[in-house]
User: Fold Small ribosomal subunit protein eS31 from Natrinema ejinorense.
Amino acid sequence: MARYDLYGDDGSTEGELCPRCGDVFLANHGDRKHCGKCSYTEWE
Assistant:
């Protein structure tokens, strides 16, 4: 899967949405997931 392919043919996505913003995908950095809009972070 290329980095720019966000949605599958059925409109689904593998990305997780930010629980605060709701309309922004969380960036996966391996040890954490981060929202670039509101700085929400989930550590793994």
